[in-house]
Design brief:
Structural class: alpha+beta
CATH architecture: 2-Layer Sandwich
CATH class: Alpha Beta
Number of domains: 1
Largest sheet: 4 strands, antiparallel
Number of helices: 3
CATH topology: Alpha-Beta Plaits
Shape: globular
Order of helices and strands: EHEEHHE
Distance between the termini: 7 Å
Strand order of the largest sheet: 2-3-1-4
Radius of gyration: 13 Å
Number of strands: 4
Strand content: 35-45%
Length: 95
């Protein structure tokens, strides 16, 4: 059963370009991970600075491996998270 992650991020509009670039670069590295099935980055249409990420992994262990990948630590933890004013994440098992 695959494991899904839905993340809602919001940054100040002035930081939107930096966050967008980091998310798109992280997408490249994440899609190359062996356990990744999908990694989509969306800009929220009616919310400046808003992003929605939809991710799927083979299983929870695959997601845990993703969280220790160098590109995750550099781009998400090091670049994106410090610029966020809101962040929420939901986890689910795909039925």
């Amino acid at each position: 059963m695959s494991y899904a992650v839905v993340a809602h991020y919001r940054c100040e509009p002035a930081d939107e370009g930096t966050v967008r670039a980091a998310l798109l670069k992280a997408r490249e590295g994440t899609r190359a991970e062996p356990a990744n099935l999908m990694y989509e980055v969306h800009g929220v249409a009616d919310q400046p600075g808003g992003f929605l990420l939809y991710e799927r992994y083979v299983d929870r262990d695959g997601f845990e491996a993703h969280k220790v990948a160098d590109h995750f630590k550099e781009l998400i933890v090091g670049t994106v998270w410090p610029l966020l004013v809101e962040r929420s994440v939901s986890f689910a098992e795909v039925l």
